[in-house]
Design goal:
By secondary structure, this protein is mainly alpha-helical. The chain has 2 domains: 165 residues, no CATH class; 251 residues, MetI-like (MetI-like fold). 77% of the residues lie in helices and 1% in strands. It is built from 18 helices and 2 strands. Strands 1-2 form a two-stranded antiparallel sheet. The protein is flat, with a radius of gyration of 32 Å. The two termini are 57 Å apart.
């Protein structure tokens, strides 16, 4: 059976093991009426049995799936003629891809028929290899199924034989759960380290071709290969200042809209709105967060940008058809639910005793909100703002459709600009060679973006810790 079906069977077997472990523990106790004599609850025996059944078998399945392709490919390669085995790695990979295509598209009977009808030696070799590949895959499936089921059954059998009145099922199940939690944390940490290391390695390759000083302080961004040596980008211009300036400009415009409006909405919903209005308004507001960004991009390009351009022309201003102002305003509208919802939760979580004490001292409701509730909820509000800033920095679709892709170094919100994320997508779109500065520049941009976001996180963490100590 394939991996999906085997996983479903293993899940059913694990659920059965839970019931079986409970029944086995009750039998050891001498019946349900004597279950109090057990040092652990029957449910804890069942949970331990289920984990012992499912976890080793699941780990075996994952290891088998990760190494199955490599082993099958090596066995298949060993059956090919020496002339084919001596090919280069790329040519061997292409040859094996043809064999896989034949094996996946035709059945064994069709392959045998083609083999009997073909007189070409190369074709016969390919079809024989395809038939061998099907046999190896079938053997791997049977071996995987047998191995996983045997491990599951043997693990349960060995465990239930150890059941006794004093068997510490609760302690053992808690150790397994603790190990799972530690493993999950380690996976998250290792994944982060892997991302950082991979980006850092590719960035180092980029900085071998381009000076870090030119990249971080250059004011021209033109990574394309020039057709003539006298062009501006003749050897490539990799100054990232225009990209980060555009990113900060659009993010600043978005935050100018999202932070005040979001905070005012949060204050109104948490302190002034009625229960019925709050129950209706908050879900309606959060619908904005579920709208796809491409819809916001269309709205910015087809509605907001023309309105801004017409208003600017009416007062004699020159407004680009794709402007940072249009992208920033629409992005700020999209981010409002993040700020308002999280800030409202933070304000509502402030102990009611602080509010009542302020009102009892004669402060007005507005003074209580401004001088008591907001400072007390500052850690949560800072977290909401940080999430909103990160969301704005990482946005791509709205910028592509509303602000354009021109790397202009300007502080004028009426001009067209681009952002770091847009350029990363542009550089990695299509067939690219990962040994050219043009493509490797995307990883350098990603590294700088990571450092920027990390700095914002550290700054926000310091603010949160400072004010959290004050109100604990």
């Amino acid at each position: 059976m394939n991996s999906s079906l085997l996983f479903f069977v293993l899940l059913c077997l694990t659920l059965f093991s839970y019931w079986f472990g409970m029944q086995r523990s009750l039998k050891v106790a001498g019946g349900a009426e004597h279950k109090k004599e057990l040092t652990s609850l029957p449910q804890q025996f069942g949970l331990l049995t289920a984990m012992v059944c499912g976890l080793p078998a699941l780990i075996t399945l994952l290891i088998f799936n990760s190494g199955e392709h490599i082993v099958v490919e090596q066995l298949l390669t060993s059956t090919l003629p020496l002339k084919i085995q001596s090919l280069s790695t790329i040519d061997t990979g292409l040859y094996l891809n043809n064999i896989r295509a034949i094996a996946n598209s035709e059945t064994a009977s069709e392959i045998l028929q083609e083999l009997s009808q073909s007189s070409d030696i190369k074709t016969q070799i390919q079809y024989k290899a395809a038939l061998t590949l099907q046999e190896l895959n079938q053997q791997a499936i049977w071996l995987k199924t047998a191995l996983v089921l045997i491990i599951a059954c043997v693990s349960v059998t060995v465990l239930v034989r150890k059941f006794s009145l004093t068997y510490p099922a609760r302690q053992k199940s808690e150790r397994i759960i603790r190990a799972l939690l530690v493993t999950s944390s380690a996976v998250a940490i290792l994944t982060t380290l892997g991302i950082v290391i991979s980006v850092l390695f590719e960035s180092i390759q980029f900085f071998k071709s381009v000076s870090p000083t030119e990249f971080m302080f250059g004011t021209q961004w033109s990574p394309q290969t020039a057709m003539r040596s006298d062009q501006v980008g003749g050897s490539g211009a990799f100054g990232a200042i225009p990209l980060f300036a555009g990113t900060m400009l659009i993010t600043f415009i978005a935050m100018l809209l999202a932070i005040p409006v979001g905070l005012m909405i949060a204050i109104y919903l948490s302190q002034y709105a009625s229960v019925k209005l709050r129950a209706f308004a908050k879900p309606m507001l959060e619908v904005l967060a579920g709208i796809p960004t491409v819809v916001y991009g269309f709205f910015a390009a087809l509605t907001v940008a023309p309105v801004i351009r017409n208003l600017g022309e009416s007062v004699g201003l020159s407004v680009a058809s794709e402007s940072a102002l249009a992208a920033g305003l629409v992005m700020g509208t999209m981010i409002i639910p993040f700020v308002s919802s999280l800030s409202e939760d933070a304000i509502s979580a402030v102990p009611n005793s602080l509010k009542e004490a302020s009102l009892g001292m004669g402060a007005t409701k507005s003074e209580t909100v401004l001088k008591v509730l907001l400072p007390a909820a500052l850690p949560g509000i800072v977290g909401a703002i940080l999430l909103a800033v990160s969301r704005a920095i990482g946005e791509t679709m709205i910028v592509v459709m509303a602000a354009g892709m021109a790397a202009n170094l300007t502080a004028n919100p009426l001009d067209s600009v681009t952002t770091v994320t847009v350029q990363i997508v542009t550089l990695l779109t299509g067939d690219q060679e990962f040994d050219s500065p043009k493509t490797l520049a995307a990883f350098a941009l990603g590294l700088m973006l990571f450092i920027t976001t990390l700095s914002l996180n550290v700054l926000a963490l310091k603010v949160v810790r400072k004010y959290r100590e004050q109100y604990d």
